[in-house]
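Researcher: Please translate sequence to C-alpha coordinates.
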Amino acid sequence: MKSVCFLVQSVYEFDPRVRRKAEALVAAGYSVDVLALRGSPGESGAGEKSYSLNGVHVRTVSLNKRRNRVALFIFQYLAFFLWAFVRVNWQMRGRRYALIDVNSLPDFLIFAPALAKRMGAKLVLDMHEVAPEYYISIYRASEDSWAVPVLRFLEKISFDFADHVITANDAREDLLVERGLPRSKATVIMNAVDEGRFFYSSPSTGLCSRDPQRFVMLYHGTVHYIYGLDIAIEAFALVHTEMPGAELWIVGAGEEKERLIELTKKRGLASKVLMHGQIPPAQVPTWVSQCDIGILPIRQDAFLDLAAPNKLSEYIVMGKSVIVSRLKAIRHYFSEEALAYFEPNNPADLAKQMARIYRDSGLRARLAAKAKEEYAPICWDVMKQRYLTLIEKLIGPAG
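Model: Translation complete:
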Protein backbone atom coordinates (compact mmCIF):
# COMPACT_ATOMS: atom_id res chain seq x y z
CA MET A 1 0.00 0.00 0.00
CA LYS A 2 1.42 3.38 -1.01
CA SER A 3 1.55 6.19 1.55
CA VAL A 4 0.67 9.85 1.04
CA CYS A 5 1.21 12.77 3.41
CA PHE A 6 -0.66 16.08 3.49
CA LEU A 7 0.78 19.31 4.90
CA VAL A 8 -1.72 22.05 5.76
CA GLN A 9 -1.45 25.01 8.11
CA SER A 10 -5.03 24.81 9.30
CA VAL A 11 -7.16 22.59 11.54
CA TYR A 12 -7.71 19.48 9.43
CA GLU A 13 -11.24 18.77 10.64
CA PHE A 14 -12.34 22.26 9.55
CA ASP A 15 -10.57 22.24 6.18
CA PRO A 16 -13.08 20.66 3.76
CA ARG A 17 -10.80 20.88 0.72
CA VAL A 18 -8.01 18.87 2.33
CA ARG A 19 -10.45 16.43 3.96
CA ARG A 20 -12.09 15.65 0.63
CA LYS A 21 -8.77 14.81 -0.99
CA ALA A 22 -7.44 12.80 1.95
CA GLU A 23 -10.59 10.71 2.35
CA ALA A 24 -10.78 10.10 -1.41
CA LEU A 25 -7.26 8.64 -1.28
CA VAL A 26 -8.13 6.43 1.70
CA ALA A 27 -11.19 5.13 -0.17
CA ALA A 28 -8.94 4.41 -3.17
CA GLY A 29 -6.64 2.28 -1.00
CA TYR A 30 -3.80 4.65 -0.11
CA SER A 31 -2.48 5.12 3.43
CA VAL A 32 -2.83 8.79 4.37
CA ASP A 33 -1.15 10.93 7.05
CA VAL A 34 -1.83 14.62 7.69
CA LEU A 35 0.34 17.22 9.44
CA ALA A 36 -1.83 20.13 10.54
CA LEU A 37 -2.65 22.66 13.25
CA ARG A 38 -4.24 21.58 16.52
CA GLY A 39 -7.79 22.69 17.13
CA SER A 40 -9.40 23.80 20.36
CA PRO A 41 -10.21 21.26 23.07
CA GLY A 42 -13.65 19.76 22.58
CA GLU A 43 -13.59 20.00 18.76
CA SER A 44 -13.88 16.23 18.29
CA GLY A 45 -10.38 14.90 17.61
CA ALA A 46 -9.16 18.29 16.42
CA GLY A 47 -7.91 19.23 19.89
CA GLU A 48 -5.68 16.17 20.18
CA LYS A 49 -1.97 15.87 19.43
CA SER A 50 -2.75 12.94 17.13
CA TYR A 51 -5.97 11.23 16.11
CA SER A 52 -7.62 9.30 13.30
CA LEU A 53 -10.65 10.50 11.35
CA ASN A 54 -12.33 8.37 8.68
CA GLY A 55 -9.15 6.40 8.10
CA VAL A 56 -6.86 9.45 7.93
CA HIS A 57 -4.05 9.67 10.51
CA VAL A 58 -3.61 13.24 11.74
CA ARG A 59 -0.70 14.66 13.73
CA THR A 60 -0.95 18.24 14.95
CA VAL A 61 1.04 21.08 16.42
CA SER A 62 -0.35 23.70 18.80
CA LEU A 63 0.09 27.01 17.01
CA ASN A 64 -2.43 29.81 16.73
CA LYS A 65 -3.27 31.10 13.27
CA ARG A 66 -3.97 34.81 13.53
CA ARG A 67 -3.68 37.29 10.69
CA ASN A 68 -4.34 40.59 12.41
CA ARG A 69 -0.63 41.52 12.35
CA VAL A 70 1.73 40.83 9.45
CA ALA A 71 4.75 40.15 11.67
CA LEU A 72 2.82 37.62 13.74
CA PHE A 73 1.49 35.92 10.62
CA ILE A 74 5.02 35.60 9.20
CA PHE A 75 6.25 34.13 12.50
CA GLN A 76 3.44 31.56 12.47
CA TYR A 77 4.22 30.59 8.89
CA LEU A 78 7.88 30.08 9.74
CA ALA A 79 7.13 28.16 12.94
CA PHE A 80 4.81 25.75 11.14
CA PHE A 81 7.31 25.38 8.29
CA LEU A 82 10.07 24.36 10.71
CA TRP A 83 7.82 21.88 12.51
CA ALA A 84 6.63 20.40 9.21
CA PHE A 85 10.22 20.25 7.88
CA VAL A 86 11.36 18.18 10.86
CA ARG A 87 8.23 16.05 11.11
CA VAL A 88 7.63 15.11 7.47
CA ASN A 89 11.25 14.30 6.72
CA TRP A 90 11.56 12.24 9.93
CA GLN A 91 8.36 10.33 9.12
CA MET A 92 9.61 9.79 5.57
CA ARG A 93 12.24 7.38 6.90
CA GLY A 94 9.62 4.95 8.13
CA ARG A 95 6.63 5.69 5.92
CA ARG A 96 8.43 6.16 2.59
CA TYR A 97 5.80 8.50 1.22
CA ALA A 98 5.18 8.15 -2.50
CA LEU A 99 3.62 11.61 -2.62
CA ILE A 100 3.28 14.67 -0.40
CA ASP A 101 0.33 17.01 -1.01
CA VAL A 102 1.28 20.47 0.26
CA ASN A 103 -1.54 22.98 0.77
CA SER A 104 -0.83 26.69 0.75
CA LEU A 105 -0.71 29.23 2.25
CA PRO A 106 2.23 29.71 2.59
CA ASP A 107 3.47 28.74 -0.86
CA PHE A 108 6.98 28.10 0.47
CA LEU A 109 5.64 25.23 2.59
CA ILE A 110 6.42 23.15 -0.51
CA PHE A 111 10.10 23.28 0.54
CA ALA A 112 9.41 21.59 3.91
CA PRO A 113 9.55 18.09 2.35
CA ALA A 114 12.68 18.88 0.31
CA LEU A 115 14.59 15.94 1.80
CA ALA A 116 11.62 13.65 1.17
CA LYS A 117 11.68 14.73 -2.47
CA ARG A 118 15.34 13.75 -2.70
CA MET A 119 14.33 10.35 -1.30
CA GLY A 120 11.83 9.88 -4.14
CA ALA A 121 8.55 11.46 -3.00
CA LYS A 122 6.54 13.42 -5.58
CA LEU A 123 5.42 16.87 -4.43
CA VAL A 124 2.03 18.36 -5.28
CA LEU A 125 1.37 22.01 -4.38
CA ASP A 126 -2.31 22.81 -3.95
CA MET A 127 -2.44 26.61 -4.18
CA HIS A 128 -5.60 27.36 -2.21
CA GLU A 129 -4.96 31.09 -2.65
CA VAL A 130 -2.83 33.42 -4.77
CA ALA A 131 -0.48 34.90 -2.20
CA PRO A 132 0.19 38.44 -3.54
CA GLU A 133 -3.51 39.19 -4.06
CA TYR A 134 -4.36 37.54 -0.74
CA TYR A 135 -1.91 39.82 1.07
CA ILE A 136 -3.30 42.94 -0.62
CA SER A 137 -6.87 41.96 0.23
CA ILE A 138 -6.43 40.79 3.82
CA TYR A 139 -4.17 43.65 4.91
CA ARG A 140 -5.69 46.25 2.54
CA ALA A 141 -2.20 46.92 1.26
CA SER A 142 -1.14 48.82 -1.83
CA GLU A 143 -0.06 46.96 -4.96
CA ASP A 144 3.17 48.97 -4.62
CA SER A 145 3.89 47.40 -1.23
CA TRP A 146 7.39 45.92 -0.85
CA ALA A 147 5.80 42.58 0.07
CA VAL A 148 4.09 42.02 -3.29
CA PRO A 149 7.22 41.30 -5.41
CA VAL A 150 8.59 39.17 -2.56
CA LEU A 151 5.41 37.09 -2.53
CA ARG A 152 5.47 36.76 -6.32
CA PHE A 153 9.07 35.53 -6.14
CA LEU A 154 8.16 32.96 -3.46
CA GLU A 155 5.15 31.91 -5.49
CA LYS A 156 7.29 31.35 -8.60
CA ILE A 157 10.04 29.33 -6.94
CA SER A 158 7.39 27.31 -5.09
CA PHE A 159 5.44 26.18 -8.13
CA ASP A 160 8.74 25.61 -9.97
CA PHE A 161 9.88 23.26 -7.17
CA ALA A 162 6.65 21.25 -7.13
CA ASP A 163 6.18 18.25 -9.41
CA HIS A 164 2.60 19.32 -10.05
CA VAL A 165 0.34 22.23 -9.08
CA ILE A 166 -3.37 22.22 -8.23
CA THR A 167 -5.52 25.35 -8.35
CA ALA A 168 -9.10 25.91 -7.19
CA ASN A 169 -10.56 27.29 -10.43
CA ASP A 170 -9.73 28.24 -14.01
CA ALA A 171 -9.27 31.94 -13.23
CA ARG A 172 -6.52 31.20 -10.70
CA GLU A 173 -4.82 28.80 -13.08
CA ASP A 174 -4.87 31.41 -15.85
CA LEU A 175 -3.27 33.97 -13.53
CA LEU A 176 -0.51 31.59 -12.47
CA VAL A 177 0.14 30.61 -16.09
CA GLU A 178 0.64 34.33 -16.85
CA ARG A 179 3.26 34.31 -14.07
CA GLY A 180 5.20 31.40 -15.51
CA LEU A 181 3.44 28.19 -14.44
CA PRO A 182 3.39 25.72 -17.36
CA ARG A 183 -0.23 24.82 -18.03
CA SER A 184 0.82 21.21 -18.56
CA LYS A 185 1.95 21.18 -14.92
CA ALA A 186 -1.39 22.42 -13.56
CA THR A 187 -4.76 20.83 -12.73
CA VAL A 188 -7.95 22.53 -11.55
CA ILE A 189 -9.73 20.85 -8.63
CA MET A 190 -12.79 22.94 -7.81
CA ASN A 191 -14.13 23.61 -4.32
CA ALA A 192 -17.08 21.22 -4.50
CA VAL A 193 -18.82 19.68 -1.52
CA ASP A 194 -18.41 15.94 -0.89
CA GLU A 195 -22.11 15.10 -0.93
CA GLY A 196 -21.63 11.65 0.58
CA ARG A 197 -20.06 13.13 3.74
CA PHE A 198 -21.99 16.40 3.71
CA PHE A 199 -25.40 14.80 4.13
CA TYR A 200 -24.28 12.78 7.13
CA SER A 201 -24.86 15.28 9.94
CA SER A 202 -24.88 15.17 13.71
CA PRO A 203 -27.59 16.69 15.94
CA SER A 204 -27.40 20.49 15.75
CA THR A 205 -27.60 21.74 19.29
CA GLY A 206 -28.34 25.45 19.50
CA LEU A 207 -30.17 25.48 16.16
CA CYS A 208 -33.03 27.94 15.96
CA SER A 209 -36.37 26.22 15.44
CA ARG A 210 -37.73 26.82 11.95
CA ASP A 211 -40.88 28.94 12.08
CA PRO A 212 -42.73 28.59 8.74
CA GLN A 213 -43.55 32.30 8.92
CA ARG A 214 -39.86 33.14 8.83
CA PHE A 215 -37.86 33.86 5.70
CA VAL A 216 -34.26 32.99 6.52
CA MET A 217 -31.21 34.31 4.67
CA LEU A 218 -28.12 32.40 5.79
CA TYR A 219 -24.39 33.01 5.74
CA HIS A 220 -22.14 30.37 7.31
CA GLY A 221 -18.38 30.55 7.50
CA THR A 222 -15.60 32.84 8.69
CA VAL A 223 -16.79 36.22 9.96
CA HIS A 224 -14.20 38.46 8.30
CA TYR A 225 -14.28 41.85 6.60
CA ILE A 226 -13.58 40.40 3.15
CA TYR A 227 -16.83 38.40 3.19
CA GLY A 228 -18.91 41.56 3.21
CA LEU A 229 -21.32 40.76 6.03
CA ASP A 230 -21.59 44.45 6.90
CA ILE A 231 -22.75 44.98 3.29
CA ALA A 232 -25.48 42.39 3.85
CA ILE A 233 -26.61 44.08 7.07
CA GLU A 234 -26.67 47.51 5.40
CA ALA A 235 -28.68 46.04 2.51
CA PHE A 236 -31.15 44.36 4.87
CA ALA A 237 -31.60 47.66 6.70
CA LEU A 238 -32.79 49.23 3.43
CA VAL A 239 -35.53 46.67 2.76
CA HIS A 240 -36.42 44.83 5.96
CA THR A 241 -39.74 46.66 6.25
CA GLU A 242 -40.70 45.21 2.84
CA MET A 243 -39.85 41.68 4.03
CA PRO A 244 -42.12 40.68 6.94
CA GLY A 245 -40.72 37.70 8.82
CA ALA A 246 -37.30 37.96 7.15
CA GLU A 247 -34.18 37.24 9.19
CA LEU A 248 -30.48 37.15 8.44
CA TRP A 249 -28.58 34.36 10.19
CA ILE A 250 -24.79 34.67 10.44
CA VAL A 251 -23.23 31.41 11.58
CA GLY A 252 -19.50 31.43 12.27
CA ALA A 253 -16.68 33.00 14.23
CA GLY A 254 -14.16 35.71 13.40
CA GLU A 255 -12.74 39.09 14.17
CA GLU A 256 -15.67 41.04 12.69
CA LYS A 257 -18.34 39.61 14.97
CA GLU A 258 -18.43 42.38 17.58
CA ARG A 259 -18.42 45.10 14.92
CA LEU A 260 -21.34 43.42 13.16
CA ILE A 261 -23.30 43.17 16.41
CA GLU A 262 -22.85 46.91 16.93
CA LEU A 263 -23.93 47.60 13.34
CA THR A 264 -27.12 45.57 13.75
CA LYS A 265 -27.99 47.58 16.86
CA LYS A 266 -27.25 50.84 15.09
CA ARG A 267 -29.52 49.89 12.18
CA GLY A 268 -32.32 48.65 14.45
CA LEU A 269 -31.95 45.04 13.33
CA ALA A 270 -30.95 43.37 16.59
CA SER A 271 -34.03 41.13 16.51
CA LYS A 272 -33.70 40.32 12.81
CA VAL A 273 -29.96 39.63 12.42
CA LEU A 274 -29.11 36.56 14.50
CA MET A 275 -25.42 35.95 15.24
CA HIS A 276 -24.38 32.38 16.00
CA GLY A 277 -20.95 31.00 16.77
CA GLN A 278 -18.85 28.47 14.91
CA ILE A 279 -20.46 25.08 14.35
CA PRO A 280 -18.87 21.68 13.66
CA PRO A 281 -18.75 20.79 9.96
CA ALA A 282 -21.17 17.90 10.48
CA GLN A 283 -23.87 20.35 11.57
CA VAL A 284 -23.69 22.55 8.45
CA PRO A 285 -26.28 20.58 6.41
CA THR A 286 -28.87 20.91 9.16
CA TRP A 287 -28.37 24.66 9.38
CA VAL A 288 -28.47 25.09 5.60
CA SER A 289 -31.68 23.05 5.45
CA GLN A 290 -33.33 25.67 7.69
CA CYS A 291 -32.75 28.60 5.34
CA ASP A 292 -34.73 29.88 2.37
CA ILE A 293 -31.71 31.33 0.57
CA GLY A 294 -27.96 31.44 0.97
CA ILE A 295 -26.18 34.77 0.85
CA LEU A 296 -22.54 35.38 -0.13
CA PRO A 297 -21.94 39.16 -0.09
CA ILE A 298 -18.19 38.82 -0.77
CA ARG A 299 -16.29 42.03 -1.40
CA GLN A 300 -14.58 42.48 -4.76
CA ASP A 301 -10.87 43.06 -5.25
CA ALA A 302 -8.06 41.41 -7.21
CA PHE A 303 -8.00 38.47 -4.78
CA LEU A 304 -11.70 38.00 -4.12
CA ASP A 305 -12.56 38.21 -7.81
CA LEU A 306 -10.90 34.79 -8.01
CA ALA A 307 -12.94 33.32 -5.14
CA ALA A 308 -15.11 30.22 -5.54
CA PRO A 309 -16.04 29.34 -1.93
CA ASN A 310 -16.96 25.91 -0.61
CA LYS A 311 -20.18 27.20 0.86
CA LEU A 312 -21.60 28.06 -2.57
CA SER A 313 -21.64 24.36 -3.50
CA GLU A 314 -23.18 23.52 -0.11
CA TYR A 315 -26.18 25.76 -0.82
CA ILE A 316 -26.53 24.38 -4.33
CA VAL A 317 -26.56 20.68 -3.36
CA MET A 318 -29.16 21.49 -0.69
CA GLY A 319 -31.41 22.99 -3.34
CA LYS A 320 -31.15 26.57 -2.07
CA SER A 321 -31.07 29.63 -4.29
CA VAL A 322 -28.12 31.93 -3.64
CA ILE A 323 -27.55 35.68 -3.73
CA VAL A 324 -23.90 36.29 -4.51
CA SER A 325 -21.51 39.04 -5.57
CA ARG A 326 -20.83 39.16 -9.30
CA LEU A 327 -17.24 37.89 -9.12
CA LYS A 328 -15.11 36.73 -12.04
CA ALA A 329 -14.48 33.14 -10.95
CA ILE A 330 -18.08 32.43 -9.94
CA ARG A 331 -19.47 34.10 -13.05
CA HIS A 332 -17.25 31.83 -15.17
CA TYR A 333 -19.18 28.76 -14.01
CA PHE A 334 -22.69 30.03 -13.25
CA SER A 335 -25.07 32.06 -15.40
CA GLU A 336 -27.49 34.83 -14.43
CA GLU A 337 -30.24 32.17 -14.56
CA ALA A 338 -28.50 30.09 -11.86
CA LEU A 339 -27.50 32.64 -9.22
CA ALA A 340 -28.99 35.94 -8.09
CA TYR A 341 -26.02 38.24 -8.71
CA PHE A 342 -25.60 41.73 -7.32
CA GLU A 343 -22.92 44.31 -7.96
CA PRO A 344 -20.12 43.76 -5.42
CA ASN A 345 -19.70 46.20 -2.54
CA ASN A 346 -23.14 47.68 -3.32
CA PRO A 347 -25.72 47.43 -0.48
CA ALA A 348 -28.48 49.04 -2.58
CA ASP A 349 -28.15 46.44 -5.35
CA LEU A 350 -28.01 43.63 -2.80
CA ALA A 351 -31.15 45.02 -1.14
CA LYS A 352 -32.99 44.84 -4.48
CA GLN A 353 -32.06 41.19 -4.87
CA MET A 354 -33.12 40.39 -1.30
CA ALA A 355 -36.58 41.87 -1.90
CA ARG A 356 -36.87 40.27 -5.35
CA ILE A 357 -36.01 36.77 -4.14
CA TYR A 358 -38.19 37.17 -1.03
CA ARG A 359 -41.29 37.99 -3.08
CA ASP A 360 -40.96 35.24 -5.71
CA SER A 361 -40.89 31.62 -4.55
CA GLY A 362 -41.06 30.45 -8.17
CA LEU A 363 -37.89 32.39 -8.97
CA ARG A 364 -36.15 30.78 -6.00
CA ALA A 365 -37.03 27.33 -7.32
CA ARG A 366 -35.89 28.14 -10.87
CA LEU A 367 -32.58 29.54 -9.68
CA ALA A 368 -31.91 26.51 -7.46
CA ALA A 369 -32.71 24.06 -10.26
CA LYS A 370 -30.53 25.86 -12.82
CA ALA A 371 -27.65 26.13 -10.35
CA LYS A 372 -27.75 22.35 -9.79
CA GLU A 373 -27.70 21.79 -13.54
CA GLU A 374 -24.68 24.06 -14.07
CA TYR A 375 -22.93 22.62 -11.01
CA ALA A 376 -23.05 19.03 -12.32
CA PRO A 377 -19.87 19.29 -14.49
CA ILE A 378 -17.83 20.57 -11.53
CA CYS A 379 -19.33 18.52 -8.69
CA TRP A 380 -17.13 16.54 -6.31
CA ASP A 381 -17.66 13.20 -8.07
CA VAL A 382 -16.09 14.74 -11.18
CA MET A 383 -13.36 16.56 -9.24
CA LYS A 384 -12.57 13.47 -7.14
CA GLN A 385 -11.98 11.37 -10.21
CA ARG A 386 -9.80 14.11 -11.67
CA TYR A 387 -7.73 14.20 -8.47
CA LEU A 388 -7.39 10.41 -8.24
CA THR A 389 -6.37 10.24 -11.90
CA LEU A 390 -3.68 12.84 -11.24
CA ILE A 391 -2.32 10.96 -8.20
CA GLU A 392 -2.27 7.66 -10.08
CA LYS A 393 -0.47 9.33 -12.97
CA LEU A 394 2.20 10.65 -10.58
CA ILE A 395 2.74 7.58 -8.36
CA GLY A 396 0.62 4.75 -9.73
CA PRO A 397 -2.28 2.90 -8.09
CA ALA A 398 -2.43 2.35 -4.32
CA GLY A 399 -1.58 -1.33 -4.40
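Researcher: Any highlights?
Model: The domain at 197-376 is CATH 3.40.50.2000 (Rossmann fold).
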